Amino acid sequence: MLIFYTIFFLIFCYIVIFPPKEFISAGLTLDNIVSSFIIEERENFINHHIKRTSINLIIFSLLPSIFIYGCKVLHWQEVENEIMTIDNFKKWNNKTYNEFNGLQFLLNFFFYFLGFTTFIFFLTCIIIKYYSLENWKNHPIAQNLTLYTSTVEISEINNESHENINKETNNLENFSIKKDSWVRVAESVSKEFQLIDKFSSNFGNSKFYLTNSWMIKVGIFNVNIVQKNDVELNLAVAKDHTLSHISDFGAQILEIKVNPIHKTNIQPFNIRLSSFDYNSLKESLKRPIIITENIVIKQSLSDRFVETFIDVINGNPKYTLPPIITLENCLGCLIKPSQVKLYKNCIDTSPETPNDAENSERTHCKMCYCRPMWCISCMAKWFASRQNQKTPENWLSGYSPCPLCRSTFCILDVCLLR
After folding, report:
1. Is the pTM for the entire model greater than 0.90?
2. Across 67-88, average pLDDT
3. How many C-alpha atoms does 197 have within 13 Å on its Cβ side?
4. Mean pLDDT for the chain?
């Protein structure tokens, strides 16, 4: 019975530390359970993770004690009864004496181990109590932010899409945060985290965020925060995986080392992400990533199609935008300006086989009267998403509905703006 209990407990601990995607999709993770008792991450990012990491430390320090106590419930009573049986009802000989000593040693070992694990638990509680003094000033996350209290600058934020988040995030002029005010730095990190134009990536039990000014790696027990303009990024490792839940065609996992340049007191850390997210990271980072020799970054099928898509539409006729129309940022990424207009250039042909399209009407392209609202990359990704994913060799000759008005178009109808 004790062996089955040990195996079950080890599986339970593994699921808590590395939850499978089925548990994550169902919300059955330690972070989700803990987050239901503290402030939400989006409301106050730093406060949320200070309390989350503290609660996680307490819970994990309690697990060994739970295991030993479970052993007592399941097995110790049996051990005690056996000792009493040997002591009172059996003849004493070398065999029974050795059995008695062995069982007594095992019992004492469990008692000592339970005392040790209980001590670890109370020591962790004392450490957390120390962290919480003076508004969590002593917490490692707060100590990390303290290093930026004299040098942090918050860039001006002036975007109408941010008005509903917080009025204070609009039109912030550059300013320096005074010393000994890590809370002000925490507020700036939390405000930038609330913005929707940040890069995010999940890998295993860690998360990575890239905002306008900060790089953030969230782990189970800690959060690494560095200023984006004060780091050097080195792509050191690239591992290929034939089988992966990320893609049916396998995946390449990249490991990037983040080295602070001027803040030498901050510990370097590594971030891991799929090669499919590498281009998005570079676009958001807006600075070079040093790549070690002999590392070849594999692009996803979608990225390769985007490149081919761009090459094809560069040969299409250009669309002259009327002067009365003002361009806005792309509806898909909200970062790049609108770059393409759907304008019917192709000559309709009847489908030769039923596989050419879902129905005959869809194969006839129609004029789209929507204003330019998409960048070239987002339009390419939209076009690819509307194709048969099992036959990527036919994507370029496929058809897609307009994202807004649903008018059918082909790749010949996508025009760059002049």
Report:
1. no
2. 64
3. 19
4. 78
